[in-house]
Amino acid sequence: MPKYTLGIDYGTLSGRAMLVNVENGDEIASSVFDYPHAVMDEALPSGKKLGVDWALQHPQDYLDVLYKTVPDVLSQAGVSPGDVIGVGIDFTACTVLPAKKDGAPLCFMDEYADEPHAYVKLWKHHAAQDEANRLNEIAEGRGEQWLKNYGGKISSEWAIPKMWQVLNEAPDIYDAADTFIEAADWVVWQLTGKENRNSCTAGYKELWNKKDGFPSKDFFKALDPRLENVVEEKLSRDITASGTKAGELTAEMAAKLGLRAGIAVAAAIIDAHVFVPAAGIDGTGKMLAIMGTSTCHMLLSEEGTQVGGICGVVEDGILPGFFGYEAGQACVGDHFQWFVENCVPAAYINEAEARGVNIHKYLREKAERQKPGESGLLALDWWNGNRSCLVDVDLTGMMVGMTLRTKPEDIYRALIEATAFGTRKIIETFKECGVPVSEFYAAGGIAKKDPFMMQIYADIIKMPIKIAGSDQGGALGSAIFGAVAAGKENGGYGDVFEAARRMGKVLDTVYLPIKENSDIYDKLYAEYEVLHDYFGKGANDVMKRLKDIKKSGQ
C-alpha cells in the first residue's frame, strides 16, 4: 500500500494541509483554512487600538488550521490513518509568541487577553525598529563578527528586537512569559507534547550559529542588563536540525486530527526555505525566488561567505551539508493588491467584471501591450520597507515620471518592473561578493499563473527562469521533510536529497530573456540603482523624515 505524509503550511492569512504520496510526490488532497483573526494590524479582537507598524496574530487560528484541514484531507483522500507516516510543518518567520512553560500562550489567559504584547508578533511586525536600530549600533560598535552573517544589519522582524520591545514597553508581559518561541516550534510542541527549537528559525531569526551558538552574554548585557541571560531565561540552546525528527504525535492530538499516535513529526522550518526541496533543488548556485505577498530568495553554496544586506547565511540552514543563504523583498504581491484596492478607477473594475476577469488580469492585459520604457515610469519597490540589500524598514515606495497622461496600467507595470529590479539587485550583490548564481527558479502562485510577470523578470535579470511544479511548494516541502523524519524503515527516506529528487517538481516551462527588452531594461535598471542609492543609503532621508512626521501626528 502507498505511504503518505502531511505537509502543514502556515502562511500570512491562512494555513494549508496537504496529503502527499511519499513514493512520487503526487499531491493527493489539500485543504485551506483562513485565519478568523487574519492579521491584526489596527486593533485587538476587543477593539483596543494598535500602534504604527504593528502586525499581530492569534495562536488559536494555528490550532484551528490543524483541527479543520487535517481531517478534511483524510476524508477527501479516503486514506487510512495507518498509511500516514509523518507530518512536516513550515511557517512564516520570524513569527514569535510569549508562552508559559507548559506551552500556553499568554494571550489565552484572561488577564492578558487585552494586552497587545501578549499576542503573536507576525513576521511583518515592524514596531520594534527602534530596538533593531539600537541592536545594530551596539553590535557594530563592539565589532561583533556574527553581524556580517546577516548582511551587517538585523531586521526589526527578528526575534531579539521583538522581545526587547516587549521588555521595554510591557515588562510585566516579558516577566510573565516563561519562553518566547517561534510559532513554527509552538505548533510542533502542540503536536508532540514537548518543546523543540528548529535550527532554521534559530539560525536566520534568533542569531544562533551552528559553530558558535548565540552571541555572548556580554553582548546581550550591552543591549540591556535585563537581557544578559535572555537565551537561558527565554529561549533555548537545545536546537534540532530542521527536517529531522522532532518527536512523535501524541495520542491526544492524534485523536483530534484522525491520525495514528506515534507517527513522526519533523522539526519545523521557515516557509520559504522549505520550497527548496519542493523544487527538486539539491545543489549550489540555483537561486529560488518564492513569490507571494513578499518574495524570499534562497541559495545554496559550499562556502559561508558574508554578503552585505542579505537576511542571513546559516550552515545547514536549508539543506544539510550546505550554507543556506536568504535574501528577500518585503513587498511583492502586497504591492499589487494595494494598488488594485486603492488606485484603480471604477470604470476599470466594471469593465473587468463585465468581461468576467479579475482586476489583476485586466490590468496585466493592458500593461502587456506596452514595450519596456514606454510609460516613462520608474518605481522603487519599498512599499513595505527594504529587506535586501538595504535592510531598512523605514524606507517607503516611490514612483517617478508620472504625468497627466499616466494610466493605471502604466503604474501597475512599473510596480511589477520595480520588484524585478529589486531581485536583480539581490542577484548582483551575491555575485559581487563571490557567491555564484548560475540558475534561477521561481515558485508560488505568481510564478505559475503570471507569464507576463515572469517574462519581465527574465528580461530584467537576464537569466532563464524555471518554474517550480507545485502550486503549494510550502506544503509539498513540508511533506518531504515529514517523509525524511519518518525514515526509510517506515516507508520514508534516509535523507532529504533522495526525497527531493523523488518528490520535488519542476515544470517544463522556461522563460528566456528577450534581448531587445533586456537592452532597454539595462537602461532603466541603471536609473533604478541611482534612486536606490540616493534614497536608500543616506544621501536623502526624506522617506524617514516623512515617516517621523506621520508618527508625531498620532
Short structural summary:
This protein has 554 residues and is of the alpha/beta class.
Describe it.
It is globular and about 65 Å long. The protein is an alpha/beta fold and 554 residues long. The N and C termini lie far apart (62 Å). Helix 12 (346-355) packs across helix 13 (359-367), helix 13 packs across helix 14 and helix 17 packs across helix 18 (496-503). Strands 1, 2, 3, 5, 11, 12 and 13 form a 7-stranded mixed sheet that branches. Strands 16-17-15-14-20-21-22 form a 7-stranded mixed sheet, sandwiched between helices. A two-stranded antiparallel ribbon has the order 4-7. The mean pLDDT is 96. It is built from 20 helices and 22 strands.
Low-confidence stretches: none
Determine the strand fraction and express it as a percent band.
Answer: 15-25%
What is the first-to-last residue Cα distance?
A: 62 Å
Query: Helix count, per DSSP?
Result: 20
Can you give the helix content as a percent range?
25-40%
Coarse morphology:
globular
Number of strands: 22
